[in-house]
Amino acid sequence: MYKILVVDDEPRQAELMCIMLGRLNIECIIAYTGEEAVKLAKQFLPDVIIMDWILPAETLTGNDAVQQILSEPLTYQIPVIACSAVSERHQVMAEGCVDFVAKPFRLDTLLDTIRNYLP
Hints:
Layout: E1 2-7, H1 11-22, E2 26-31, H2 34-44, E3 48-52, H3 62-71, E4 80-84, H4 89-94, E5 99-102, H5 107-115
Parallel strand pairs: 1-2, 1-3, 3-4, 4-5
Helix pairs in contact: 2-3
């Protein structure tokens, strides 16, 4: 069974994504902040991380969380897919993400993107 860490400050969005992933027999872990994402990435070592790029600045932004995850010896190899309504593909790719899915996303697009990075 694959593990995916979904990071989104909107609980409904994260839960919807996890319901969809659960139908594919994928274990889903949810983080609502950038700090929580870094902690859970180290704890669970997911196969893929789906990162909301716009997270509240009071904690770590999506970019900050990605930078910390990619700088950790335990987690640097985990593919991070940015998911955002306002960022652009070239911006998130320059920051270390392997791919980008625009919100609102289509289920088939999200799943195809995730499948590209599963081991």
